[in-house]
Amino acid sequence: MHNYIVKNFTKSLAVFSFIIIFLASPAFSEETNNATELINEAEQYLLKGEYKKSIIIYDNILEIFPADSKIYEMKGIALSNIRLQSTLGSQEIENPSGTYDILYTNKLSTIEFYKALEINPTSVIALNGLGIGFGNFGEYDEAKKYFARALEIEPDNFVTKNYLVHLEKTIKKYPTKSTEKSSYLLNLEKNEIPYWIKTNAGWWASDKISDADFIAGIQYLIKNEIIMLDSKTIEKNSSNIIPAWIKNNAKWWSAGIISDENFLNGIKYLVISGIINVDVQENSEIIKKELERTAWNFERYLEKIKRDVKNENRYIEYPNPSDGVIIKYWKEPHKWNLGGYLNRSQDFFESAKMYLVDDVYVVEYKIFVNDQPHGLPLDHTGTLQNSFKFWEDSEFTHNNDGKKVIIKFVVTNSKADASAWVTWVVRDLGEDVLGHANIGRGVVEVALGDYGCDGSFQLFTVDTVQTIMTHELGHSLGLRHSDNPDNIMYPIIEEVNYSYCLLN
Q1: Which helix (H) or strand (E) holds 4?
Q2: Residue 100: CA atoms inside 13 Å, Cβ hemisphere, count?
Q3: Which residues contact 143 (CB under 8 A, 6 or more apart)?
Q4: What is the DSSP string of 322-344?
Q5: Given 299, 320, 341, which residue is the final one in a domain?
Q6: SS (HEC) of 353-388
Q7: Which pLDDT value is given to residue 93?
Q8: Helices (H), 176-283
C-alpha cells in the first residue's frame, strides 16, 4: 500500500509589519520580535484546533498593536472555527458536546472581520470572512455584497468564487428579508477612507482633539497606502507645530466641501515637504478607540440580526460546504469508506485483462466507482474521467517483447468484477497523507480535504483532488513511486489548494 503525502502543506502565516518604518528603535524592535513569537505560537494552536488558546494570544498581541488588521483576521478565523469543532481530526477537541451558541460565536467572529476591514478596506480575507459571517446569519444578500467586493479586488480568487457560487444557489432556495441597517453604518460603507478619520479631522479643526490625534489619522492613511509615499523624498521640519491654515482644509474636508482626492493630495504634499512631520510609530490608541466605537455600532446591527433570526425562525444554510460534508460523513461513514478492504489480498480483486489489438497490448481495468456524497458542491466523479484519460493517453512498453502497451478503464457497477475500487474519504488517513492505494489492484482512497489550512476541515479544490486521484490510480496500475519531482508518481505533492479556506 502506498501513500501520497504533502510537503510544506501548511500555509505559514506571514510576520506582519505593524507600522510605517522610516527609522527603527531598539525598544520597538524588541516588541516586534515578541509579537512575531506570539504569532507563531498562536498559529500552532490554531492548526491543532485549539482555538481558545490562539485567541488568548491574539488578544495579547492586540494589546501591543491594536491597529493591526492581520491579527483581527486571524482572531476572526479562530472564532469562526470554534463553531465547527469537528471530531474527525487528530487535534484536541475543546467542546465535543457542541454546546456553543452558534449565533453568538458567529457574531464575535464577524465583528473581528469588521475591525480588520475598517483598518484595511482591501483585505480579501476580511471581506470573505464577513461574507461567511452574514451567510451564517441567513443574511445572504448582505453576504453577497462582501464576496462581490472581494472579487473586485482579486478577480481570480477561486476561494471567493466558490463561496459566491454556493451562496447564489442558497439564495435561490431560501430567499430571506434582510435586516434593516442603521444610517450610521450605511454612511460608513460609502467611504473608502475610514469614517473615523474624516470625523477626527472635523474635531481637530474645532480644537476638540490634539494635533497628535489628527496625525494618527494621517499616519493610518500612509500605513495602509491610501496616501502613497516614498520615504526617501520626505523632508523634516524643525518645528512640530502644524500651520493653522491646514485646519481650514480639514474643516472643509470633514464638511464635504473638499473632495477626498484633493484633501489627500494636499496632505501628501505637506508630509513630503516636511510641513507635517510623520513619526515612526502611529498613535494606535486613538485608532483603537475609534475601532471600538464603530464596532459597537456594528455589534448593535448584528444583535438586531440575531433577534430577527430567532423571531422569524429563519432556516440557515451555512455558506461553507466543507461543514456539510463533515455532517454527511457523520451520518453514513460506511458509504464512503472502503479502507477495511485495503489489507485484502490481491486475489480478492479481479485481475486486469490484457489482449492484443493491431500489435498493441491493451490492458483493461474494470473500476468500481463509489458514489460521492449527495449534495457535495464539487464534482469529483466528473473529474475522475480526467484521471482515467491521463493514463489512457500514456504510453508504456511491454517488458518481454517491447510492444506498445495502452491502458483502458471500464467503469462497472459490480464490485466483484472490478480490479480497483475508487472512493473519496474525509477520515484521517494519517499525518500528511492524502491517499492510499494497493499496488496492481485493490482499493484507491483519496482524501477530499483535511485540517492543514486553518485547523478546521476544509475541502480541497477539484484540481487538487484530481492530482491525488491520478497518482493513486497509477499505483492501482502497478506503478511505484518515482524519484522525479516532475513525475505524477513522485510521492510528495508540493502544494495543495482548498476550496473554502480563508487562508488559502
Answers
A1: strand 2-6
A2: 21
A3: 130, 131, 132, 133, 134, 135, 167, 319
A4: HHHHHHHHHH-HHHH--GGGTTS
A5: 320
A6: EEEEECCEEEEEEEEEECCCCCCCCCCHHHHHHHHH
A7: 42
A8: 183-189, 195-205, 211-223, 245-254, 260-272
CB 38 within 8 A of CB 61: yes
Q: Are residues 406 and 431 in the same domain?
A: yes
For the record, the C-alpha cell of 348 comes out as 480478492
Select the more confidently predicted residue: 136 or 193.
Answer: 136
The reported pTM is 0.75
d(CA 402, CA 422): 30
Residues 86 and 157 in one domain: yes
Residues 6+ apart with CB under 8 A from 318: 135, 136, 324
Closest CA to 137 of 103, 183, 187: 103
Domain match, 251 and 135 both: no
Domain containing residue 433: 326-493
Residue 423's domain is classified under what CATH number?
Answer: 3.40.390.10
Is residue 479's pLDDT more than 50? yes
Contacts of 301 (CB under 8 A, 6+ apart): 179, 181, 182, 185
Is the pLDDT assigned to residue 159 strictly greater than 90? yes
Residue 500 lies in a domain: no
Residues in a beta bridge with 369: 422
| CB-based contacts of 48, cutoff 8 Å, min separation 6 | 91, 92, 455
Residue 244, SS3 per DSSP? coil
Distance of CA 146 to the CA centre of its chain: 14
Q: HSE, CB side, 13 Å, CA atoms: give it for residue 28.
A: 13
